[in-house]
Amino acid sequence: MKFDADGAYRLHPKVAIRPEPFGALAYHYDNRRLNFLRAPELVALIESLSDHDSVRQAFRAAGIESHRWPAFETALASLAESEVLVPS
Fold first, then answer.
1. Terminal CA-to-CA distance of the chain, rounded, Å?
2. 20 φ, ψ to 5°?
3. pLDDT tens-digit profile of 5-40?
4. Pairing assessment for the beta strands 9-11 and 85-87 based on DSSP bridges
5. Residue 4: is its pLDDT beyond 90?
6. What number of other Cβ atoms are within 10 A of residue 35's Cβ?
7. Confidence (pLDDT) at 21
C-alpha cells in the first residue's frame, strides 16, 4: 500500500512510543520492529495524526512549514511501511 498524505493515518494500536532526548523510540509489539524517531516535531506529528482528516491537515495544525513537508512525508511513509502507522 502506498502512503497517501491526503489520507488519514493513526498510530498502530500495538505500537508504543517512548520519549527520548533525541525524539522517541517506536516499538511495534507484533512485528517487534524498533524505529528511531529523530525529531521531536515528528513525534508530536505522529501523536496528533488521529486528530486530523489527512496528513496534510496535521502538518498545518502542527505548524510545519510547507518546504519541510516532503521530508516528513518520507519519514511517515517509512513508518507506514513498518506498520507503525496505519490508515484510519
1. 14
2. -140, 160
3. 999 999 999 999 999 999 999 999 999 999 999 999
4. antiparallel
5. yes
6. 17
7. 93
Query: Distance between CA atoms of 32 and 30, rounded to whole angstroms?
Result: 6
Give the mean pLDDT of 64-81.
97
**Residue 34 phi, psi (nearest 5):** -115, 125
Phi and psi dihedrals of 68, rounded to 5?
Answer: -95, -10
Where do the structural domains in the chain lie, given as residue ranges?
Answer: 9-83
Within 8 A by CB and 6+ apart from 55, the residues are: 4, 5, 6, 7, 8, 9, 49, 73, 76
Give the burial string for 42-60 (b: 16+ CB within 10 Å, else e): bbbbbeebeebebbbbbbe
Cα distances from 61 to residues 13, 24, 53, 64, in angstroms, run 23, 21, 11, 8
Mean pLDDT over each residue of the chain, to the nearest integer: 96
And the C-alpha cell for 66?
510547507
